[in-house]
Design brief:
The chain is mostly helical and about 400 residues long. The chain has 2 domains: about 170 residues, Tyrosine recombinase, N-terminal domain (DNA polymerase, domain 1, Orthogonal Bundle); about 200 residues, Intergrase catalytic core (hpI Integrase, Chain A, Orthogonal Bundle), CATH 1.10.443. The chain is about 45% helix and about 5% strand. The protein is built from 14 helices and 7 strands. The strands form 3 sheets. Strands 5-6-7 form a 3-stranded antiparallel β-sheet. It has a two-stranded parallel ribbon with strand order 1-4. A two-stranded antiparallel sheet has the order 2-3. Strand 6 and strand 7 form a beta hairpin. The longest helix is centred in the N-terminal third of the chain and has 21 residues. The radius of gyration is 24 Å and the shape is globular.
Length: about 400
Amino acid sequence: MEYLSPLALFDALEFINHNSAIHHDKVNQKDLEKARGFLKCYIGSVGTFNSYRREIERLLHWCWIVAEKTLSQLKREDIENFIRFCQNPPKEWIGTKKVARFIDKDDQRIPNPTWRPFVATISKAAHRKGKLPDTKNFALSQGAVKESFAILSTFYNYLLQEEYVFMNPVALIRQKSQFLRKQQSHARIRRLTELQWDYVINTAKNMAEQNPNKHERTLFIMTALYAMYLRISELAASARWTPKMCDFYRDQDGNWWFLTVGKGNKERQIAVSDAMLEGLKRYRKFLGLSLLPSPADNAPLLLRTKGKGPITSTTYIREIVQTCFDNAMASLQDDGHTEEADALNEATVHWLRHTGISDDVKHRPREHVRDDAGHSSSATTDKYIDVQLRERHRTAKKKPILT
Protein backbone atom coordinates (compact mmCIF):
# COMPACT_ATOMS: atom_id res chain seq x y z
CA MET A 1 0.00 0.00 0.00
CA GLU A 2 1.24 3.51 -0.79
CA TYR A 3 1.00 6.29 1.74
CA LEU A 4 1.49 9.94 0.95
CA SER A 5 4.26 11.54 2.96
CA PRO A 6 2.85 13.26 6.07
CA LEU A 7 3.63 16.82 7.06
CA ALA A 8 5.48 17.78 10.21
CA LEU A 9 3.41 18.16 13.37
CA PHE A 10 5.73 19.91 15.81
CA ASP A 11 7.95 22.88 15.02
CA ALA A 12 11.25 23.80 16.67
CA LEU A 13 11.40 24.24 20.42
CA GLU A 14 10.70 27.98 20.33
CA PHE A 15 7.57 27.34 18.25
CA ILE A 16 6.23 24.37 20.22
CA ASN A 17 2.84 26.06 20.65
CA HIS A 18 2.45 26.55 16.89
CA ASN A 19 -0.87 25.04 15.79
CA SER A 20 -0.89 24.95 12.00
CA ALA A 21 -0.54 21.16 12.01
CA ILE A 22 -4.02 20.68 13.45
CA HIS A 23 -5.46 21.45 10.01
CA HIS A 24 -4.08 18.21 8.54
CA ASP A 25 -6.83 15.84 7.48
CA LYS A 26 -5.99 12.83 9.64
CA VAL A 27 -4.88 14.57 12.81
CA ASN A 28 -6.58 13.57 16.05
CA GLN A 29 -6.74 16.77 18.06
CA LYS A 30 -6.71 15.12 21.49
CA ASP A 31 -3.72 12.94 20.62
CA LEU A 32 -1.90 15.96 19.25
CA GLU A 33 -2.39 18.07 22.36
CA LYS A 34 -1.38 15.26 24.70
CA ALA A 35 1.76 14.74 22.67
CA ARG A 36 2.48 18.47 22.74
CA GLY A 37 2.06 18.49 26.52
CA PHE A 38 4.52 15.60 26.80
CA LEU A 39 7.13 17.36 24.65
CA LYS A 40 6.82 20.53 26.72
CA CYS A 41 8.19 18.54 29.66
CA TYR A 42 11.54 18.53 27.89
CA ILE A 43 11.94 22.15 26.82
CA GLY A 44 14.98 22.43 29.09
CA SER A 45 17.03 20.11 26.88
CA VAL A 46 17.11 20.66 23.14
CA GLY A 47 18.70 17.29 22.38
CA THR A 48 16.15 15.31 24.40
CA PHE A 49 13.29 17.37 22.99
CA ASN A 50 14.41 16.70 19.41
CA SER A 51 14.79 12.97 19.98
CA TYR A 52 11.40 12.65 21.65
CA ARG A 53 9.73 14.80 19.01
CA ARG A 54 11.09 12.57 16.24
CA GLU A 55 9.74 9.34 17.75
CA ILE A 56 6.40 10.75 18.88
CA GLU A 57 5.82 12.36 15.49
CA ARG A 58 6.48 9.06 13.71
CA LEU A 59 4.12 7.22 16.06
CA LEU A 60 1.31 9.73 15.58
CA HIS A 61 1.59 9.66 11.79
CA TRP A 62 1.61 5.87 11.74
CA CYS A 63 -1.24 5.74 14.23
CA TRP A 64 -3.52 8.05 12.25
CA ILE A 65 -2.54 7.28 8.66
CA VAL A 66 -1.53 3.61 8.65
CA ALA A 67 -3.31 1.99 11.61
CA GLU A 68 -6.17 4.50 11.56
CA LYS A 69 -6.36 4.43 15.34
CA THR A 70 -5.88 6.80 18.25
CA LEU A 71 -3.16 6.52 20.90
CA SER A 72 -5.60 5.06 23.43
CA GLN A 73 -6.59 2.28 21.00
CA LEU A 74 -3.08 0.92 20.43
CA LYS A 75 -2.32 -2.55 21.81
CA ARG A 76 0.93 -4.47 22.18
CA GLU A 77 0.72 -5.88 18.66
CA ASP A 78 0.16 -2.40 17.26
CA ILE A 79 3.43 -1.16 18.75
CA GLU A 80 5.19 -4.22 17.31
CA ASN A 81 3.73 -3.40 13.90
CA PHE A 82 4.84 0.21 14.28
CA ILE A 83 8.45 -0.84 14.98
CA ARG A 84 8.40 -3.11 11.93
CA PHE A 85 7.05 -0.19 9.90
CA CYS A 86 9.91 2.02 11.08
CA GLN A 87 12.43 -0.63 10.12
CA ASN A 88 11.10 -0.62 6.58
CA PRO A 89 9.09 2.57 5.94
CA PRO A 90 7.60 3.34 2.51
CA LYS A 91 9.89 5.31 0.21
CA GLU A 92 7.45 8.24 0.27
CA TRP A 93 8.26 8.68 3.97
CA ILE A 94 12.05 8.73 3.48
CA GLY A 95 14.10 11.81 2.63
CA THR A 96 17.72 12.03 1.52
CA LYS A 97 18.70 15.09 3.54
CA LYS A 98 17.74 16.76 6.77
CA VAL A 99 15.56 19.82 6.31
CA ALA A 100 13.62 22.11 8.62
CA ARG A 101 10.21 20.83 9.67
CA PHE A 102 8.62 24.25 9.22
CA ILE A 103 9.44 27.25 7.03
CA ASP A 104 8.40 30.89 6.99
CA LYS A 105 5.98 31.92 4.25
CA ASP A 106 3.90 35.09 4.11
CA ASP A 107 4.79 35.84 7.72
CA GLN A 108 3.51 32.44 8.83
CA ARG A 109 5.12 29.20 9.94
CA ILE A 110 3.99 26.39 7.66
CA PRO A 111 5.04 22.73 7.36
CA ASN A 112 7.94 22.21 4.96
CA PRO A 113 6.67 19.99 2.10
CA THR A 114 10.18 18.53 1.57
CA TRP A 115 10.42 17.21 5.15
CA ARG A 116 10.18 13.45 5.71
CA PRO A 117 9.80 11.43 8.94
CA PHE A 118 12.83 9.27 8.03
CA VAL A 119 16.13 10.24 6.42
CA ALA A 120 18.54 8.00 4.51
CA THR A 121 22.19 8.78 5.21
CA ILE A 122 25.62 7.74 3.98
CA SER A 123 29.03 7.73 5.60
CA LYS A 124 31.33 10.73 5.49
CA ALA A 125 33.76 8.78 3.33
CA ALA A 126 31.07 7.91 0.78
CA HIS A 127 29.89 11.53 0.71
CA ARG A 128 33.43 12.71 -0.01
CA LYS A 129 33.56 10.33 -2.97
CA GLY A 130 30.49 12.01 -4.45
CA LYS A 131 27.95 9.36 -3.51
CA LEU A 132 24.41 10.41 -2.59
CA PRO A 133 21.97 8.91 -0.08
CA ASP A 134 19.46 6.47 -1.56
CA THR A 135 16.07 5.75 0.00
CA LYS A 136 16.51 2.10 -1.04
CA ASN A 137 19.40 1.80 1.41
CA PHE A 138 17.57 3.18 4.43
CA ALA A 139 18.10 1.12 7.56
CA LEU A 140 17.19 1.72 11.17
CA SER A 141 20.13 0.91 13.44
CA GLN A 142 19.86 -1.29 16.52
CA GLY A 143 20.57 1.77 18.62
CA ALA A 144 17.71 3.67 16.97
CA VAL A 145 15.27 0.80 17.60
CA LYS A 146 16.35 0.56 21.24
CA GLU A 147 15.94 4.32 21.67
CA SER A 148 12.50 4.18 20.08
CA PHE A 149 11.33 1.55 22.59
CA ALA A 150 12.60 3.66 25.50
CA ILE A 151 10.99 6.89 24.30
CA LEU A 152 7.65 5.31 23.47
CA SER A 153 7.50 3.65 26.88
CA THR A 154 8.22 7.00 28.58
CA PHE A 155 5.51 8.61 26.46
CA TYR A 156 2.92 6.02 27.43
CA ASN A 157 3.84 6.29 31.10
CA TYR A 158 3.09 10.01 30.78
CA LEU A 159 -0.25 9.26 29.13
CA LEU A 160 -1.05 6.86 31.98
CA GLN A 161 -0.38 9.56 34.53
CA GLU A 162 -2.61 11.89 32.53
CA GLU A 163 -5.29 9.17 32.56
CA TYR A 164 -5.47 9.40 28.78
CA VAL A 165 -4.73 5.68 28.35
CA PHE A 166 -5.21 2.72 30.68
CA MET A 167 -2.09 0.66 29.85
CA ASN A 168 1.41 0.96 28.46
CA PRO A 169 1.45 -1.31 25.38
CA VAL A 170 5.22 -0.92 25.03
CA ALA A 171 5.81 -2.41 28.48
CA LEU A 172 3.77 -5.45 27.45
CA ILE A 173 6.26 -6.40 24.74
CA ARG A 174 8.28 -9.08 26.53
CA GLN A 175 10.17 -10.48 23.55
CA LYS A 176 11.97 -7.37 22.33
CA SER A 177 14.72 -9.72 21.12
CA GLN A 178 12.74 -10.11 17.90
CA PHE A 179 13.67 -6.49 17.20
CA LEU A 180 16.92 -6.11 19.15
CA ARG A 181 19.98 -8.31 18.84
CA LYS A 182 21.63 -9.32 22.09
CA GLN A 183 25.28 -8.37 22.34
CA GLN A 184 27.96 -10.66 23.72
CA SER A 185 29.94 -7.64 24.89
CA HIS A 186 29.84 -3.85 24.88
CA ALA A 187 29.31 -2.10 21.57
CA ARG A 188 32.49 -0.78 19.97
CA ILE A 189 33.41 2.73 21.05
CA ARG A 190 34.17 4.99 18.09
CA ARG A 191 37.40 6.81 18.92
CA LEU A 192 40.73 7.93 17.53
CA THR A 193 43.85 5.78 17.73
CA GLU A 194 46.88 7.13 19.57
CA LEU A 195 48.55 7.94 16.25
CA GLN A 196 45.46 9.71 14.92
CA TRP A 197 45.11 11.82 18.06
CA ASP A 198 48.83 12.75 17.95
CA TYR A 199 48.40 13.98 14.40
CA VAL A 200 45.15 15.79 15.16
CA ILE A 201 46.41 17.75 18.16
CA ASN A 202 49.76 18.54 16.52
CA THR A 203 47.91 19.68 13.41
CA ALA A 204 45.80 22.01 15.56
CA LYS A 205 48.99 23.42 17.12
CA ASN A 206 50.57 23.98 13.71
CA MET A 207 47.41 25.68 12.45
CA ALA A 208 47.42 27.97 15.50
CA GLU A 209 51.07 28.92 14.97
CA GLN A 210 50.60 29.61 11.25
CA ASN A 211 47.34 31.54 11.61
CA PRO A 212 46.70 32.43 15.27
CA ASN A 213 43.85 34.85 14.51
CA LYS A 214 41.85 32.01 13.05
CA HIS A 215 43.13 28.89 14.75
CA GLU A 216 44.10 29.63 18.36
CA ARG A 217 40.41 29.09 18.96
CA THR A 218 40.59 25.85 16.97
CA LEU A 219 43.38 24.58 19.21
CA PHE A 220 41.41 25.46 22.34
CA ILE A 221 38.29 23.71 21.02
CA MET A 222 40.19 20.52 20.17
CA THR A 223 41.89 20.57 23.58
CA ALA A 224 38.65 21.09 25.50
CA LEU A 225 36.70 18.42 23.61
CA TYR A 226 39.40 15.84 24.36
CA ALA A 227 40.66 16.87 27.80
CA MET A 228 37.25 17.53 29.38
CA TYR A 229 35.18 15.05 27.32
CA LEU A 230 32.82 17.83 26.28
CA ARG A 231 29.89 17.29 23.98
CA ILE A 232 29.66 19.81 21.16
CA SER A 233 26.44 21.20 22.67
CA GLU A 234 28.40 22.03 25.83
CA LEU A 235 30.59 24.47 23.90
CA ALA A 236 27.87 26.27 21.95
CA ALA A 237 25.69 28.91 23.56
CA SER A 238 21.95 28.21 23.73
CA ALA A 239 18.82 29.49 25.43
CA ARG A 240 19.52 27.26 28.42
CA TRP A 241 23.28 27.71 28.74
CA THR A 242 26.09 30.02 27.59
CA PRO A 243 29.62 28.81 28.42
CA LYS A 244 31.58 31.66 29.99
CA MET A 245 35.18 32.17 31.03
CA CYS A 246 34.20 32.21 34.72
CA ASP A 247 32.88 28.65 34.33
CA PHE A 248 36.55 27.82 34.87
CA TYR A 249 36.99 28.41 38.59
CA ARG A 250 39.39 27.60 41.43
CA ASP A 251 38.24 25.99 44.68
CA GLN A 252 39.55 26.60 48.20
CA ASP A 253 42.31 24.03 47.68
CA GLY A 254 43.61 25.78 44.58
CA ASN A 255 42.21 23.14 42.20
CA TRP A 256 40.59 24.24 38.95
CA TRP A 257 37.22 23.02 37.73
CA PHE A 258 34.95 23.64 34.77
CA LEU A 259 31.20 23.95 35.27
CA THR A 260 28.95 22.92 32.41
CA VAL A 261 25.34 21.97 31.70
CA GLY A 262 25.11 18.83 29.63
CA LYS A 263 22.75 16.18 28.38
CA GLY A 264 19.40 16.16 30.14
CA ASN A 265 20.04 19.71 31.38
CA LYS A 266 22.30 18.29 34.10
CA GLU A 267 24.93 20.51 35.66
CA ARG A 268 28.30 18.94 36.39
CA GLN A 269 31.79 19.88 37.51
CA ILE A 270 34.78 18.67 35.50
CA ALA A 271 38.23 18.40 37.04
CA VAL A 272 40.61 20.54 34.96
CA SER A 273 44.02 18.96 34.32
CA ASP A 274 47.26 20.94 34.27
CA ALA A 275 47.45 20.41 30.48
CA MET A 276 43.93 21.79 30.01
CA LEU A 277 44.76 24.73 32.25
CA GLU A 278 47.81 25.50 30.09
CA GLY A 279 45.57 25.34 27.03
CA LEU A 280 43.21 27.85 28.65
CA LYS A 281 46.11 30.17 29.52
CA ARG A 282 47.41 30.09 25.95
CA TYR A 283 43.96 30.85 24.56
CA ARG A 284 43.34 33.73 26.98
CA LYS A 285 46.79 35.19 26.32
CA PHE A 286 45.96 35.27 22.62
CA LEU A 287 42.69 37.05 23.43
CA GLY A 288 44.61 39.68 25.41
CA LEU A 289 43.12 38.59 28.74
CA SER A 290 44.72 37.69 32.04
CA LEU A 291 46.10 34.15 32.03
CA LEU A 292 43.30 32.85 34.25
CA PRO A 293 39.71 34.08 34.64
CA SER A 294 38.28 35.74 37.71
CA PRO A 295 34.86 34.82 39.14
CA ALA A 296 33.53 38.03 37.53
CA ASP A 297 34.79 37.20 34.02
CA ASN A 298 31.50 36.72 32.15
CA ALA A 299 33.03 36.85 28.68
CA PRO A 300 31.77 34.08 26.35
CA LEU A 301 34.10 31.09 26.19
CA LEU A 302 33.98 30.95 22.38
CA LEU A 303 33.58 34.22 20.52
CA ARG A 304 32.39 34.56 16.96
CA THR A 305 35.02 35.50 14.38
CA LYS A 306 32.66 38.08 12.90
CA GLY A 307 30.28 40.16 14.95
CA LYS A 308 29.82 40.06 18.68
CA GLY A 309 28.66 37.43 21.09
CA PRO A 310 29.26 33.71 21.59
CA ILE A 311 29.14 30.93 19.00
CA THR A 312 25.62 29.52 19.02
CA SER A 313 25.87 27.10 16.10
CA THR A 314 27.04 23.54 16.72
CA THR A 315 27.31 23.20 12.94
CA TYR A 316 29.94 25.94 12.91
CA ILE A 317 31.96 24.17 15.62
CA ARG A 318 31.72 20.94 13.63
CA GLU A 319 33.16 22.74 10.62
CA ILE A 320 36.08 24.00 12.72
CA VAL A 321 36.83 20.48 13.98
CA GLN A 322 36.42 18.97 10.51
CA THR A 323 38.97 21.40 9.07
CA CYS A 324 41.47 20.15 11.65
CA PHE A 325 40.58 16.54 10.87
CA ASP A 326 41.04 17.16 7.14
CA ASN A 327 44.49 18.67 7.64
CA ALA A 328 45.49 15.82 9.96
CA MET A 329 44.34 13.29 7.34
CA ALA A 330 46.51 14.99 4.73
CA SER A 331 49.52 14.82 7.06
CA LEU A 332 48.90 11.15 7.82
CA GLN A 333 48.66 10.45 4.10
CA ASP A 334 51.87 12.35 3.37
CA ASP A 335 53.72 10.38 6.03
CA GLY A 336 52.59 7.04 4.63
CA HIS A 337 49.90 6.23 7.21
CA THR A 338 47.25 5.54 4.58
CA GLU A 339 45.04 3.25 6.68
CA GLU A 340 45.04 5.66 9.61
CA ALA A 341 44.15 8.53 7.27
CA ASP A 342 41.28 6.58 5.72
CA ALA A 343 39.91 5.64 9.16
CA LEU A 344 40.10 9.26 10.34
CA ASN A 345 37.87 10.15 7.40
CA GLU A 346 34.94 8.65 9.32
CA ALA A 347 35.63 10.52 12.57
CA THR A 348 33.10 12.96 14.03
CA VAL A 349 33.38 15.57 16.78
CA HIS A 350 31.95 13.11 19.32
CA TRP A 351 34.91 10.79 18.76
CA LEU A 352 37.05 13.31 20.65
CA ARG A 353 34.91 12.84 23.76
CA HIS A 354 35.13 9.06 23.39
CA THR A 355 38.89 9.27 22.87
CA GLY A 356 39.45 11.43 25.94
CA ILE A 357 37.39 9.10 28.15
CA SER A 358 39.07 5.97 26.74
CA ASP A 359 42.56 7.36 27.31
CA ASP A 360 41.79 8.57 30.84
CA VAL A 361 40.08 5.44 32.07
CA LYS A 362 43.38 3.58 31.55
CA HIS A 363 44.99 5.66 34.30
CA ARG A 364 42.29 7.25 36.47
CA PRO A 365 39.72 5.62 38.77
CA ARG A 366 36.64 4.91 36.72
CA GLU A 367 34.43 6.72 39.25
CA HIS A 368 36.39 9.92 38.66
CA VAL A 369 36.12 9.57 34.88
CA ARG A 370 32.42 8.72 35.26
CA ASP A 371 31.70 11.94 37.15
CA ASP A 372 33.76 14.15 34.82
CA ALA A 373 32.06 12.60 31.79
CA GLY A 374 28.59 12.95 33.30
CA HIS A 375 27.77 9.26 32.96
CA SER A 376 24.70 8.18 34.89
CA SER A 377 26.40 4.97 36.06
CA SER A 378 29.77 3.24 36.15
CA ALA A 379 28.39 0.68 33.70
CA THR A 380 28.53 3.33 30.97
CA THR A 381 32.13 4.17 31.82
CA ASP A 382 33.02 0.47 31.83
CA LYS A 383 32.30 0.38 28.09
CA TYR A 384 35.50 2.36 27.59
CA ILE A 385 37.70 -0.16 29.43
CA ASP A 386 39.21 -2.46 26.83
CA VAL A 387 42.07 -4.15 28.72
CA GLN A 388 40.37 -7.53 28.39
CA LEU A 389 39.82 -7.01 24.67
CA ARG A 390 43.51 -6.26 24.14
CA GLU A 391 44.52 -9.39 26.02
CA ARG A 392 41.96 -11.50 24.15
CA HIS A 393 43.30 -10.30 20.82
CA ARG A 394 46.92 -10.81 21.91
CA THR A 395 46.26 -14.51 22.59
CA ALA A 396 44.52 -14.87 19.22
CA LYS A 397 46.98 -12.93 17.08
CA LYS A 398 49.51 -15.74 16.50
CA LYS A 399 47.02 -18.59 16.07
CA PRO A 400 48.14 -20.81 13.20
CA ILE A 401 45.83 -22.18 10.55
CA LEU A 402 47.95 -25.29 9.94
CA THR A 403 49.60 -27.25 12.72
